[in-house]
Amino acid sequence: QLQLVESGGGLVQAGGSLKLSCAASGVTFNARATGWFRQAPGKEREFVGGISWRAGVTNYADSVKGRFTISRDNAKNTVDLQMNSLKPEDTAVYYCAADRYTYSNLPVSEDEYEYWGQGTQVTVSS
User: Fold this and answer.
1) Residue 27 has what pLDDT?
2) In a designed cystine with 86, which of 30, 97, 122, 124 is the match (CB 3.0 to 4.6 A)?
3) Tell me, what's the pLDDT at 80?
4) Contact 32, 20 (CB under 8 A)
5) How far, in Å, CA of 1 to CA of 32, rounded?
6) Residue 53: left if φ>0, alpha if ψ -120 to 50, beta else—which one?
7) Cα 25 vs. chain centroid, distance in angstroms?
8) What is the rounded CA–CA span in Å between residue 20 and residue 114?
């Protein structure tokens, strides 16, 4: 079984930065693509970005491209989301998720992710 735990959320002013971390327990985490999603109040959960299992491929939503960076350390079973130039519209609960399949391409649909963390709140004040 694979368990994911997010950390690093909090309150930050617009223009500031936060770094979220996703720590995994489970031997197959480093063989799975990992995605970050977010859900704002009253909105559907959306894909923020993801990283392939080898860390060679990343993909970002247009709304965060150039501001957010995803990295992973397979030796530590962690995936980080560095968020810069934060905007009030980035306010949401952020989730990390691991791909249903191992050694697969990076998916963008949440239906392809099987393992989810509990989420961490990010609030950006104007």
Assistant:
1) 80
2) 124
3) 98
4) no
5) 13
6) alpha
7) 16
8) 20
HEC string of the chain equals CCEEEEECCEEEECCCCEEEEEEEECCCHHHCCEEEEEECCCCCCEEEEEECCCCCCEEECCCCCCCEEEEEECCCCEEEEEECCCCHHHCEEEEEEEECCCCCCCCCCHHHEEEECCCEEEEEEC
- How many CB atoms neighbour CB 90 within 10 A? 22
For tokens 């957010």, name the residue.
Answer: 68
Q: Are 55 and 80 in contact (CB under 8 A)?
A: no
d(CA 123, CA 37): 15
